[in-house]
Amino acid sequence: MRSRRDFLKLAALFSAAGALPLLQACGRQVVQNPAAPLRIGYLPITDATPLLVAHGQGLFAKHGVEVAKPVLFRSWASLVEAFLSGQVNLIHLLSPMSIWARYGSASPIKVVMWNHMAGSALTVAPDIDNVSALAGKTVAIPFWYSIHNVVVQKILRENGLRVVEKNPQAGEVRLSVMAPSDMVAALANRAIAGFIVAEPFNAVAESKGVGKVLRFSGDVWRDHACCVTLMQEHDINQRPEWVQSVVTALVEAQAFAAQHRADTALMLSKQGSHKYTPHEEKVLQKVLAPTPDAWARYSASGVIRHPEWGQSRIDFQPYPYPSYTEKLVEMLKQTHIAGVNRFLDALDPVQVAQDLVDDRFVKQAVIQGGHQAVFKLNGWTRTETIVV
């Protein structure tokens, strides 16, 4: 019920009428304080890593950006509401949700970079050994507009299973939107047969012995983005130098996280000095810095089908490839999404990639920082690889 309310609230926000009063409030704040300090909003999941590392490492201050303490939100709806109204001006958001925000309500937001890659998995009850065994059962997703929903439906289709929203029969799987914090308990008490979500909830289920990873999302869609970094269009237009400094700090934070994974796990954990998330350090270590033996076991058991891709459980690379946004729009058109989503029909993938994303700042930050090698960037284009 909590997740359903969250979805309905976002559906209202991502309409022209619902967004208008929030955008008007944001406009008033801009007039009153055009040089507002950086205010970060985040959910306590690994998707927020670059935003929190940049704050924890003092990288914003290094680049002359005044920043307030990051604000933790408990739902996507509350995070988005705060962003659209101007209470916070830097957030991470599920990549499909950014498309919903921009084209469902014409919200003046821009994707300025990727937040992270992969970092999600399909976790199932211990007695389920293959996707076919999910027939007639329920799988939880964090949101309809999520890469998790896109990937799991691709997996189900490739295994001959059809998605329904209630009463699954033979050959069907029910998808149910559920708050990530509720998923492990729901799996433990057999209310669901599995879930697909961002870390560290998959690692938590493993650690508690109530679930096992069946597939990693990055082993289906190679190097896919999960969350993206959003900023307000008025900030980009009115103070681009400030935006550049913010993005440069975030790129440096991603480089730090990629090269100092154990330190990053401690920083994000409840054992860290900032206590950014309520998660145990040992669980975050499983996500950010799994041992080589542990990672090899996933390949040996067949959980990882494409070891030649060289995927990490979660990885960091900030450049928003246009091909990803284009393919994401195409995939969303093939994905079952509850609610009114007719706006998707009119979207042109190439136009969305050009309009939604502003990659000028992240390009400059990567080049000036000499980060190409760290992020394994060999240019600004690629071909998307999706193989179940």
UniProtKB/TrEMBL annotation:
SUPFAM superfamilies registered for this protein in UniProt: Periplasmic binding protein-like II
Cell location: Endomembrane system
Keyword Cell inner membrane: yes
Short name of any one Pfam family annotated for the protein: NMT1_2
CC annotations in GO: endomembrane system
Main location: membrane
Hydrolase as UniProt keyword: no
Signal peptide start-end: 1-25
CDD domains recorded: PBP2_NrtA_CpmA_like (cd13553)
UniProt KW keywords: Cell inner membrane, Cell membrane, Membrane, Signal, Transport
PANTHER family: ALIPHATIC SULFONATES-BINDING PROTEIN-RELATED (PTHR30024), BLL4572 PROTEIN (PTHR30024:SF43)
Similarity section: Belongs to the CmpA/NrtA family.
Listed name of the protein: ABC transporter substrate-binding protein
